[in-house]
Design a protein that fits this description.
Blueprint lengths: L1 H23 L8 H5 L3 E6 L2 E6 L7 E6 L5 H9 L1 E3 L2 H10 L3
Antiparallel strand pairs: 1-2, 1-4, 2-3
């Protein structure tokens, strides 16, 4: 009987350890690294300057010294609506188009 209790205790402890280890192992989403790190951005007018917001964040990531009133009218209209881009490379390209 004593041997059975020791064996059951050992099995219980082993199962508890396996469950604990499994719980704390990071999960692999099988997504490419670029997708995991990339976030969407919105370029918009903030107080007369060009600002960039990351999706899901209320504070601007950056505010640039590009005065929106000096831009062409079609760019001003796009900025008022917000220009959404899906990647950092697209963001850099659009900022270059605006004069950064």
């Amino acid at each position: 009987m004593k041997k059975l209790a020791v064996a059951l205790s050992t099995i219980f402890c082993a199962i508890l350890i396996m469950v604990s280890v499994y719980t704390f192992i990071p999960k692999n989403d099988n997504q490419p690294a670029e997708q995991k790190q990339s976030a969407g951005y919105t370029i918009t007018d903030l107080g007369g300057k060009v600002a960039v917001f990351e999706d899901g964040i209320d504070e601007p990531v950056a505010v640039y010294d590009i005065y929106t009133h000096l831009l062409p009218e079609n760019d001003i209209e796009l900025l008022r609506k917000g220009i959404h881009v899906d990647s950092l490379s697209q963001l850099q390209s659009r900022l270059e188009d605006l004069g950064l």
